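We close this part of the discussion by returning to an individual protein. Part of our work consisted of pairing the sequence of a single chain with a tokenised description of its backbone. What the numbers capture is local backbone geometry rather than side-chain detail. The amino acid sequence and the backbone structure tokens for this protein are reproduced below.
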Amino acid sequence: MAGDVSLNRRLLVLGGLVLLIGAALVFRLWTLQIIQFDQFADRADNNLRRIATTTAIRGRIFDRNGVELVTNRSTIAVMAPALRIDNYEQFDRLSEEQQAWVERVGTTLNLSNEEVVNRLTTTREGPLELRLLAIDVPMETVAYIVERSGEFAGVEVEARAVRQYPHGSVAAHVLGYTGNITEAEMGQAAFEGYQASDVVGKTGVERSFEHILQGVRGTRELEVNAQGRLQRVVSETEPTAGQDIYLTLDVNTQMATEQALLDAMSVAQRDGHEDATAASAVVMKVDTGEVLALASYPTYYPEEFIGGIPQDRWAELTDENSNFPLTNRAVSSMYPPASTFKSFMTMAAVDKLGWGPNTTHICTGTWTGFGEQWPWRCWLRTGHGAKNLYEANYNSCDIPFYEAGREFHLRGNDEIQDMARHFGYGSVTGIDLPGEARGRVPDAEWKAFWNRDFPEYRAWVAGDTVNLSIGQGDMLATPLQVAYSHIPIANGGDKWRPQLLHSIRDSRGDVIREVEPELAENQPEVSDRAITIIQNALRMVITDGTGRSAFRGFEVPVSGKTGTAETGRRDPITGLRDQDSHAWFVGYAPANNPQYVAVVMVEHGGGGGAIAAPAARQIFAQLFGLEEEWVTATDASR
């Protein structure tokens, strides 16, 4: 592609500049190799040959429309020969001249003596390989070193390509970051054949598609004398650039999704939910499983990892007070799915209990299905009155689902759990990202193992099933799982594997491989009747229920479900947990011909209808080319 040609030209120009600046350093060597070659030819037999390699340009990353998400830029690396000591503890073994050299190099490159020594005593490279001292070095620093070459004996500079992120932190958790390969990674089968100086993907698709992006090193056969000094380059093969990958992401949808999360957290904090400082969202295509956006907040800037991240900055990023910005909450964090799970309880009740749209239960605000001594509350303490199955869903009334949970418990099997697992809960979805969590679908076997050291808590009891019936208790899911599980509802029964890789292309843009969407191995076992009923119910959530306020006046028909997940901390005044609840919304659009499914989760955000649903509206607005604006919603339900 033109981008690679341009980069190669920039590298050549930069390399030429480096060579020009360093001419004084290499003039004598050139004289020995070329002008006085015949004079020293008879000594060549006494010289040694060694093979060195040159790094390949890493493949670039694009969105589905060819917009660059990660590219490469040329920069300068400063190298030096290994020191003949083992570690910094032996610094005093160096001569005064060598110690002064270390101090001079460190001062110039803004490194401590210990950092210089550590980088020049690493055994990751071969004994004759130059060690990397610093990368992305400013040109004025390079010029300073070259101009004072006598003070920096052995120091060399070379042009290299490093990662560049045109959109800053956008999609950081999907893209991931790169870093020097570690000794532990060198011992892994996945990195067989890699060299100690290789830069590899650490997280995100940089890691998932490492072998596509890496490229093939070039080789240089060098002639050195008995002291290890370079005499001449015998032969050289050019490196082969890594292949480019095109993701299913749409950068505009990704940016709109990230903005929607920021807006949701801001509104939640304004409304008194000051702990609403983390959120995540997923947008997928209903007919293929392609991921158009996957966002997590707080986020980070991948460029911070170029050349190695300072230890103090790493400590900041991994400290609890930072709220763990490196964590991809969309795939790695687990939460109670709360009322978003009522969709699956509804289908289970239809298929297993014989319920229909007119199956009605009375909500007084309190349910005593297991006796007066064990009261269970609806989120609306005053009660909803008589509600059929549709009304139970669009009002998110808890009582009918408690009743379903009781019936399933009395049947004495895992029918709720089976329904959940058919739709993807409790197992990884298989998305092309590292660190995906399995979630949890609790059952008697799990509870017995979980409480193996506490015999009094091992038994599965009625309350466990009732809690599960409203997506609470020990049930846990990732935002990705919630999106994934609703795709079969939207499209009528097909569960698609989440897809991030769209195609692989060479540096000229020629397609090497197009990635076809894949149906998941285990398809849902559910009747068409059950799917139709829940489709109707989810549409009514928006037209008549807890999502109505957020989507009022929206031009595209949407179906969806709000959720407000209790987190375990209670408000000290009311005794309720609403002040610390997670806000959920999952929906798809257009309701009559679904194309996209979107999930929004705001940690400690409060009500799903008031916080998560307006954020989802903004995302759908971008998808359908409508005005992206925050709509103040008043839904206070679960």
